[in-house]
Amino acid sequence: MPTTNDQRSAVFKLMIYVIGFLLFCEWLLPLGSITETKNVTIFFIYATFCFFISFIQVPWYLSMPLKLLGLAFILDGLYIAETIFSRNWFSVLYDQIIFNIQVIQSQEWWQMTPLFRSLLFLILLWLMSYLLFYWIVVANRMFVFVLLTLIYVTVVDTFTVYDGKWAIIRTFVLAMAALGVTSFHKEMDKESISLGGFKKGHLWVLPLLAIILFSTVAAYASPKLSPQWPDPVPFIQSAAEGAGPGGGGVVQKVGYGENDSRLGGSFIQDDTRVFTAMADGERYWRIESKDTYTGKGWEDTLEDPVQTVSPDNIPFRTFTDEVEVEEQQSLIELTSEADFRKLVYPYGTTSLDSYPEDYRLQIHENTGEMDTLKGDSPAKLNRYVINYDFPSFEYDQLRESSTEDPEEIKENYLQLPDSLPGRVRNLASQIIEDEDNRYDKAKAVESYFSSNGFEYSTTDVPVPDENEDYVNQFLFESQIGYCDNFSTSMVVMLRSEGIPARWVKGFTGGERIDTTDVTYNDELQNKYEITSGNAHSWVEVYFPDVGWVPFEPTKGFTNNADFYTDIDTEDSDSAASGSDTETPEDNMGNPQQMEEQEAASDSESINIDSEQSYVWVYVLAAFLLLALLVLYVTRYKWISAFLIRRYRKNEDEETFEKAYQYLLKVLDHKGFKRKPEQTLRDYAFVVDRHFQSNDMRRLTNNYERVLYRNESRRSHWPKVTELWENLIKKALS
Amino acid sequence: MNQQTFLYQPKISDVMKNINKVMIGKEEAALLSIVALLAKGHVLLEDVPGVGKTMLVKTLAKSLDCEFKRIQFTPDLLPSDVTGVSIYNPKEMEFEFKPGPILGNIVLADEINRTSPKTQSALLEGMEETSITVDGNPVSLKDPFFVMATQNPIEYEGTYPLPEAQLDRFLLKMKMGYPTASQEMEMLSRTSGGHPINEISSVITRDELVALQKEVEEVYVDTTVNRYIIDIVTGTRKHEGVYLGVSPRGSISLMKAAKAYAFVHDRDYVVPDDVQYLAPYVLSHRMILTSEANFEGATPESIIEELLSATSIPVKRNISE
B1, B228, B315, B320: which to substitute to probe chain A, counting the most A Cβ within 10 Å? Predict the structure, then answer.
């Protein structure tokens, strides 16, 4: 009676599938507690929806739009304020996807937006529903999934805060039930037993229930070993605690960042292009300066005053009118990877050209930080031309400059923390004791680092302890570091000697990649490429008649500012006038502060975030692994489906040969092992006896004619294809 | 090995029907004999007397409308007893050739190893050359010409074992063996009436047989199958238990026999099954084992069996060749 058999098998399938779904829910459950996922319920609903659609097996042209619709509604409800399916709605979605793809390309995973993450996750659920359907219902294989679920629950329980106590019991019960039902189903199939509907259902339901109950109770009541190793969760959390910005030996990524409150630690190199610049020579690309040294890093206390101006006239100067200048222009183009909404500019910037309309600049007068605004909100300015007066500092002017600093300057730029160890001050006065003017003093400090055992390195750079001063550690203990160490130390030493100085951030000149004839200026200009690795920090020293003059203490770097001397005699300026010399170590890169995910100063919240996003990565990886495994287990199914479609189209003997070989492989996989010495006829006979047909013999006969007769079977192709398809389907069912 | 029943070529099927009427449980031996006949080869039967060799050959001869001759070899048999002699006819005043038994279509040479090598070679020459020399004059043999020689198992006394080079001239060597109990029961009940051999008639004419032999030569052997044959044959040469491996003539014989076997099964191309089935019959008398192997109880058949299960069947087209 085929109908009862079909019904029975449908009920079995439903049972197994529901159990499979419940097991899958055990995978989703922990997400709420171990990750920042907020709407687990919605994912549950979507998973249920997908599983249901997979089960009723509607054709793909129905199920696909249905699932897509579900996906769209969820995204709409959670993230998108626009009316669903309106133009704006799509444009929001489009922007999001483009942005996230860029983020993924630049490998900045933590920047992925929630919308995109949810989208990926929903697609994953979709995929899982499809794969699990095949795995559980069609292939009738439950054990691997059950095993993986158990492993997953135990791992999540052990290594995260998730409490899997009940989850493990649920999983266990479900697993027993699932295995019981599947093996029962398989057994019935194999022996072709009909139970005559479900009249005698209690015959197997009761023993199964009894076994499950018994083993659960027995397991619950029996004594258990206490944990064999200490709970790793507190350890993991405490280890993650230190992983804040600049925290315990964590390797960070080089690039321009804003938070400099804790300096130190190693960096990995990053050659992501940030912008290109057309310029006469290498320039310092300044972004901002900082004024307050805390003993650990730099803080900004002089954010105000702020004024918003049109880029046509920029009222910000770091030097006085006494300095010789040359009018120049430079074209800056930011790449899509650059994510700062600030102006990068050379010294002496006067105005912008060729910038998009609506843009304005919000200038922090003290620090020189210029936010690019579109309307009232910060926006990225992708392309602009800068007009600037490139300064050249005259040595004698610097040497003869007075030392009468304005009160305001003294107040802001001589600050030092009380905790600064005395030996730093002593060292500073030792270095400069022979010099009589401010310029030579500054030069003395600057060149102090080029000898005396200092080493440039981005790795193995220590982070100062809680009670240790950053400069003190670098000058006397580690003597190894990068631009932050050198520049901060120079500023601190100058300040301890009463010389106003500040710490400047930005980029170095970059690498020259091209020389072009530019249209807006009839000269030849060089094109420079500036990468994240070119992020840099240097020093500005105040000279009352001149203004702020850049210095370059970092070992291996040359000063990009221009210096000259009126009298044409050579000077001891090997370090000066480096504007046009290639910087040999340019490729070493200059690590700067890394961009922590939220740039928040609250290190606590950052820790949690980073920990959670790691968990996300693991969960995603686990899902992916599972998906791959399912794909692998069901590989013969989908490969066959694909091949059937392909072989239908081809009619040559080679295709036949491939198809036949593939059939042999499938049969082999299904347990019909052909020994190498077994002839095809003999094998076909064995296969046919099992399937109680003669398809394999007929197909083999055709194949033999191709193989041993060298004959074309094109005329028989439809028949051959049909036989082959039948056999593949029979073998896989 | 291959136990499937195949469809026979229609004419061969008729012959087999005839044989089945007379013989019980001798289908395999009959089939192999037909294969040898179609491949223009000869058969060496190694068996004890009384298992139906003569009856088989007689039935075959009658079914094929062929002239049947029998030579009983004894130690005192002379070559001229095989080939025939020229006798002086006083009436005609000249020598007249009296043809010997070798000048039949189907010749049963019984107990060939009991006669002297000289007499043996008279038969063997005929088998190889399709003609014999009598009194210095060549006499051509009949076409078709098929010899089925029997020999007692070697251990018996008073035998002259055939030299290796002469064994090589037989396409197949086989054993008939005893019938099973049920077959023998049926045999007894059947022979109680008149002998069935008198009731059968020929189903193929001699000319048709020659035509069939021609068709057999046309059977296609692919290079993949040839490669398989070579693999098996070279296996015998490399096997450590074999003192003298199968000669190239052996490979040719295997291919010829396989062609005939394919033809018998109404196929115009050879498949590895044919080769696999025939290899023990075609190859086992063409090799000499080392004394160590003999001592360990190996037989040529067991070694071929071993080689067959170590040689993989070609299942992909040999495109490079």
Answer: B315
Q: Mutual orientation of helices A40-56 and A60-78 as an angle, nearest 10°?
A: 170
Closest CA to A26 of A609, A626, A612: A626
Answer yes or no: do A708 and B272 touch at CB < 8 A: yes
**Radius of gyration for chain A, computed over Cα atoms and rounded to the nearest angstrom:** 36
Instruction: Find the CB nearest A679 among B224, B268, B276.
Output: B276
Q: Which CATH superfamily is domain B10-207 in?
A: P-loop containing nucleotide triphosphate hydrolases (3.40.50.300)
Range of the domain at A677: 636-732
The mean pLDDT value of chain B amounts to 86
Q: If contacts are CB pairs under 8 Å, which of residues 353-392 in chain A contact chain B?
A: none
Q: How far apart are CA B116 and CA A148, in angstroms?
A: 81
Q: How many CB pairs under 8 A join A and B?
A: 59
Number of domains in chain A: 3
For A486-505, how does the pLDDT look when each residue is reduced to its tens digit (9 = 90+)? Answer: 888 888 888 888 889 999 98
Residues in B touching A658 (Cβ below 8 Å):
none
- Kindly determine whether residue A677 and residue B271, on different chains, have CB atoms separated by under 8 Å: no
B258 pLDDT band (50/70/90 cuts)?
Answer: very high
For A553-564, how does the pLDDT look when each residue is reduced to its tens digit (9 = 90+)? 888 888 888 888
Distances (CA, A) of B135 to A195, A585, B73, B79, B132: 89, 109, 21, 11, 10
Average pLDDT of span A106-135: 81
Looking at CATH, the fold of the domain delimited by B218-310 is given as: Helicase, Ruva Protein; domain 3 (1.10.8)
| Chain B residues with CB within 8 Å of chain A CB | 2, 4, 220, 222, 224-225, 268-273, 276, 308-317
Q: Considering the entire predicted model, what is its pTM?
A: 0.47
Using a CB-CB distance cutoff of 8 angstroms, which residues of chain B are in contact with residue A700? none
Q: Which of B222, B313, B317 sits opposite A678 (nearest CB)?
A: B313
Instruction: Quote the tokens at residue A437.
Output: 């003017």
User: Residue A94 falls within a domain, yes or no?
Assistant: yes
